[in-house]
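re: that chain from earlier
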Amino acid sequence: MNPARPTAVHQRVDGLARIRFKKAADGRTTLGELYQRAPCRLLFPNTEPGEPLQAVLLTTSGGLTGGDRTRVEIEMDAQTSATVTTQAAEKLYRALPDSDDTRIEVDIRVGEGAWAEWLAQETIFFEAAKLRRSLVADVAPQGRLLAVESLVLGRTAMGERVCNGRLHDAWRLSRNSRLIWADALHLDGDIRKLLHAPFGFGTAVACSTVIYVAPDAHALVSGLRQLIARYELPATAIALDGFLVIRMLAENAARLREAVMHVSAAIRARAGGLPARMPRVWYC
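^ sequence. v structure.
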């Protein structure tokens, strides 16, 4: 009798990056706390003139799959200004049928008078991937947050198509601990069929969400709508209770990326007085 083959145990990652920015005695924003656990790692490049302190997040595992977890926690003390961005697109690979979802969590806390940026580059979702992603933010009454997230369903330039998988992408925004907006996208099973439903993406394979939470959000919406219109993409920009939401779809991920960069750069310049460009890592 042959002995039973042992059940394979697959190694999974559980990464964490925790960062807090504080105000120094001279008024500059400095690093107050840093904790990182593989595969999450934060780097601190030299910034260009006019840019705030910057942290660049990378995932040393080279991508994520079923059962992997990452969590990013960002805390901005009062009167601080900083950018947290990502080194490159995050890749979500095929998950085994019996594996758990990949979990990506981002938690942001913005103090009074602080300027916070979470500028994530695209997440690429491959066939049969499983992703549960969430972004939770709490912004003080006079704090400001610019957050960007994008999703690309397969690399069309490589002839890839996503037909099946599971995706749950959720946002929860609070102002002074009071919930002001909650939203979620859920696709499970035959993703291609769901995307072509009347309420779906149509022929689009990429989507982006740009959020700006600030007292002056409503003043920006008209100009941003004009900017978005130049790209002729399915898109909307609305201003609600002290925050602005922009959603864009595209059949071409590169075209969507270009639009996201221009819209985000415009918000940075018009609202934050920053250079009208994205962090240099976005151009690499």
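The CA atoms of residues 90 and 123 lie 5 Å apart.
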